[in-house]
């Protein structure tokens, strides 16, 4: 018996199999990694001169003021100054060094209001500009 008009179609699976592709890609990657030449790397020793005296933390011609949360005074170029005599001390430093630009370094937990009052005091002492930074703890 022959059925006319009835056709059976085979369903073709058109999905892409990923596992063999990954295997091939891994083998290609492995092949190129093993056959790649990194080149000849030549190195030589360099004698670096050593300083006899330690380097200054800050240049002497620069004014650096440090404010820390745990101290009541300030540091001007690594010299502790009480808060009550800060403005006269800073005026002396400005005139002796001839510098009006000041770098203000504050610890991360320093009070914002205290830093602003300090910037105002620097302007009163004759500073023309103040640069702000965060003090590195060493």
UniProtKB/TrEMBL annotation:
Q: Which UniProt keywords apply?
A: Cell membrane, Membrane, Protein transport, Transmembrane, Transmembrane helix, Transport
Entry's Gene Ontology cellular component terms? plasma membrane
Instruction: Name one molecular function that GO assigns to this entry.
Output: transmembrane transporter activity
Q: Where exactly are the transmembrane stretches of this chain?
A: 12-34
Compartments annotated for it: namely: Cell membrane
Protein transport: is it a keyword of this entry? yes
GO BP terms, alphabetized:
protein transport
Task: Give the protein name, as stated in the record.
Answer: Biopolymer transporter ExbD
Record organism: Entomospira nematocerorum
């Amino acid at each position: 018996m022959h059925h006319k008009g009835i056709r059976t179609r085979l369903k073709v699976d058109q999905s892409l199999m990923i596992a063999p592709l990954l295997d091939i890609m891994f083998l290609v990657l492995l092949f190129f990694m093993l056959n790649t030449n990194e080149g000849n790397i030549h190195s030589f020793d360099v004698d670096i001169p050593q300083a006899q005296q330690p380097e200054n933390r800050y240049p002497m011609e620069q004014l650096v003021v440090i404010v820390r949360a745990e101290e009541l005074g300030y540091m001007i170029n690594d010299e502790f100054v009480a808060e009550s005599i800060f403005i006269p001390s800073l005026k002396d430093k400005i005139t002796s060094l001839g510098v009006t630009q000041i770098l203000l370094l504050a610890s991360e937990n320093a009070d914002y209001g205290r830093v602003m009052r300090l910037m105002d005091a620097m302007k009163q002492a004759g500073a023309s500009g103040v640069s702000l930074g965060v003090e590195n703890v060493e």
